[in-house]
C-alpha cells in the first residue's frame, strides 16, 4: 500500500521535483563515482592510463544497458500489476526477472573472458594502451553478474517508491568505492586492477540492500514467488525495456566510434582527453535518466489504474522540469569547466586543452537531451517497447553516428565534439512528432 500511495499521490510542480530528486541524485552519483576511478587512475597510474576507462566503456555500457533493460521493462510490468491489484503475479514476474539476470550474467562473463583479446582490440586498444586496459577489463568482466544486478535492482527499488532509499544505497556504494580506490591503489599499490575491484565492491551495496528489502525484511508490496519459467513474459519485458537498453548500448557503441575518431584526430592523447568529455556527457544524461526512471512508474501505475487526469498532469510537469533542468545544467557546467577538467589534467597541457574544448562544445546538448530521454521513457511506461526502442535507436545510434562521422569529416576534431548537441537537436523533432502522434492512444496531453 505504501508503494501505491507514493505513486498515486496528486503531484504539483514542487512535489514532483521532491519525488524525482532522490532518483536524479542516485543516477548522478553513479556518474560521479564512475569518475572517481578516472581521477585516482590519473593520479596513481598516469595520464595515459585513464584511457583504459574509456576503452572499457563500451563493455560496461553493454552490462549496464542489459541490466537497465530488464529492470525498466520488468518494472513497468510489475508496477502495472500492482496498480491492478495483482500482487502475487507481480512477485512471480519479479522472480523470473532475477533468475533470468543471473543466467544472462554468467553467459556475459564467459564470453568476455574467453574472447578477451579480440574484444579489447575491437574497443580500440593499441599497443600503448592495452597494458592498462587488460587488468581492468578482466576484473570487471569476471563480475558482470554484479553489474547487471546492480543496474536492475536500483530501478526496481525506485519502482517501489523508495527513491530516497535507493539514493542512500547508491551513495554508500559510491563512498565505499572512493575509499577503496585510495586504499587499493595508493596504499596497497594494486594499480588499475584495484580500481576495478573497488568499483565492483561498490556495486554490491545495492545487491545487499535488495536481499534485505525483498527477502529478509519483506518490505515490498510483493515478494519472491515460486514461478514457472515464462519465456514469453521475459521476451515482452526485454522488448519493453529495449529503449533504455538501446540508449545505453548505443552510447557505448558510439563511444567506441569516438575512441577511433579521437585517435584519428589527436592520437592516444585524444583518447585520454575523450574520457573526460565522456564523463561529462554521462553526467548530463544521468540527470535526465534519473528523472525519467522516477516518473516512469507513475505513468505505469496510472495507466494500470485508468487515471487519465493524473497522466496529463504528470506529463505537463515533466516536460516543464526537463526544460528547466536542461538550462540549469548547461549554465552550471559552463562555470565549472576549469575545476572539472582540472581534476583530471594539469592546466596548459595538451591533455587539458583538448578536454576543455570538447567539454565546452558538448554543453548545448543539455537543452535537448532531457526531452528526448523522457519521450522514450514515456512509451516504456505504457509498455510500447516498439516506439520507445525506435526513438532511442534513432537518437543514440543512427543520428549520432551520422553526425560523428559527417561532422568529423567536415570539421575535424571540432566536429567530433559538436556531433552530440547537433544529434540531440535533430532527434528532438523526431521525439516531439512521436509524442504528438500517440497523444490520443495514451491520453497524456
What layout of secondary structure does this protein have?
Layout: H1 2-8, H2 13-44, H3 51-83, H4 87-114, H5 116-122, H6 130-142, H7 144-159, H8 163-187, H9 191-216, H10 231-240, H11 242-266, H12 268-305, H13 308-335, H14 337-344, H15 350-362, H16 366-381, H17 385-411, H18 413-437, H19 439-442
Helix pairs in contact: 2-8, 2-9, 2-12, 3-4, 3-6, 3-7, 3-10, 3-11, 3-12, 4-7, 5-6, 6-9, 7-8, 7-9, 8-9, 11-12, 11-17, 12-13, 12-15, 12-16, 13-16, 14-15, 15-18, 16-17, 16-18, 17-18
Features:
mainly alpha; 445 residues; 19 helices
Describe this structure in words.
- This protein is an all-alpha fold.
- The protein has one domain.
- The chain is built from 19 helices and no strands.
- It has helices at about 1-10, 15-45, 50-85, 85-115, 115-120, 130-140, 145-160, 165-185, 190-215, 230-240, 240-265, 270-305, 310-335, 335-345, 350-360, 365-380, 385-410, 415-435, 440.
- Helix 2 (about 15-45) packs parallel to helix 8, helix 3 (about 50-85) runs antiparallel to helix 4 (about 85-115) and helix 5 crosses helix 6 (about 130-140).
- The model has no long low-confidence stretch (mean pLDDT about 85).
Amino acid at each position: 500500500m505504501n508503494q501505491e500511495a507514493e505513486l498515486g499521490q496528486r503531484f504539483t510542480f514542487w512535489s514532483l521535483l521532491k519525488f524525482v530528486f532522490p532518483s536524479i541524485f542516485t543516477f548522478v552519483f553513479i556518474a560521479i563515482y564512475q569518475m572517481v576511478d578516472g581521477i585516482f587512475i590519473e593520479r596513481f597510474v598516469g595520464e595515459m592510463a585513464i584511457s583504459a576507462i574509456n576503452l572499457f566503456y563500451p563493455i560496461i555500457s553493454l552490462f549496464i544497458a542489459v541490466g537497465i533493460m530488464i529492470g525498466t521493462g520488468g518494472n513497468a510490468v510489475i508496477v502495472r500489476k500492482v496498480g491492478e491489484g495483482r500482487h502475487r503475479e507481480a512477485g512471480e514476474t519479479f522472480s523470473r526477472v532475477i533468475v533470468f539476470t543471473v543466467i544472462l550474467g554468467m553467459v556475459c562473463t564467459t564470453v568476455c573472458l574467453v574472447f578477451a583479446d579480440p574484444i579489447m582490440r575491437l574497443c580500440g586498444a593499441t599497443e600503448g594502451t592495452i597494458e592498462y586496459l587488460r587488468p581492468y577489463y578482466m576484473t570487471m568482466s569476471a563480475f558482470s553478474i554484479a553489474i547487471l544486478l546492480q543496474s536492475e535492482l536500483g530501478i526496481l527499488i525506485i519502482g517501489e517508491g523508495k527513491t530516497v532509499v535507493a539514493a542512500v544505497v547508491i551513495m554508500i556504494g559510491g563512498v565505499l568505492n572512493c575509499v577503496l580506490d585510495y586504499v587499493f591503489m595508493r596504499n596497497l599499490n594494486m594499480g588499475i586492477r584495484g580500481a576495478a575491484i573497488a568499483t565492483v565492491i561498490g556495486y554490491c551495496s545495492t545487491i545487499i540492500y535488495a536481499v534485505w528489502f525483498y527477502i529478509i525484511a519483506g518490505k515490498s508490496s510483493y515478494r519472491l514467488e515460486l514461478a514457472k519459467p515464462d519465456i514469453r513474459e521475459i521476451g515482452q519485458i526485454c522488448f519493453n525495456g529495449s529503449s533504455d537498453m538501446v540508449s545505453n548500448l548505443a552510447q557505448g557503441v558510439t563511444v567506441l566510434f569516438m575512441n577511433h575518431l579521437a585517435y584519428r584526430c589527436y592520437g592516444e592523447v585524444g583518447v585520454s582527453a575523450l574520457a573526460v568529455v565522456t564523463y561529462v556527457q554521462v553526467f548530463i544524461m544521468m540527470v535526465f535518466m534519473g528523472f525519467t526512471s522516477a516518473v516512469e512508474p507513475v505513468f505505469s501505475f496510472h495507466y494500470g489504474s485508468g487515471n487519465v487526469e493524473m497522466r496529463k498532469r504528470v506529463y505537463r510537469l515533466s516536460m516543464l522540469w526537463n526544460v528547466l533542468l536542461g538550462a540549469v545544467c548547461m549554465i552550471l557546467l559552463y562555470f565549472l569547466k576549469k575545476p572539472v577538467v582540472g581534476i583530471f589534467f594539469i592546466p596548459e597541457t595538451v591533455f587539458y586543452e583538448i578536454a576543455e574544448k570538447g567539454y565546452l562544445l558538448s554543453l548545448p546538448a543539455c537543452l535537448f537531451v532531457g526531452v528526448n530521454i523522457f519521450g522514450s521513457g514515456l512509451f516504456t511506461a505504457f509498455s510500447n517497447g516498439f516506439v520507445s526502442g525506435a526513438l532511442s535507436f534513432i537518437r543514440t545510434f543512427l543520428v549520432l553516428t551520422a553526425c560523428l562521422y559527417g561532422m568529423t569529416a567536415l570539421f575535424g576534431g571540432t566536429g567530433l565534439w559538436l556531433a552530440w548537441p547537433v544529434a540531440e537537436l535533430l532527434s528532438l523533432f523526431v521525439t516531439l512528432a512521436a509524442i504528438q502522434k500517440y497523444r490520443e492512444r495514451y491520453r497524456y496531453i
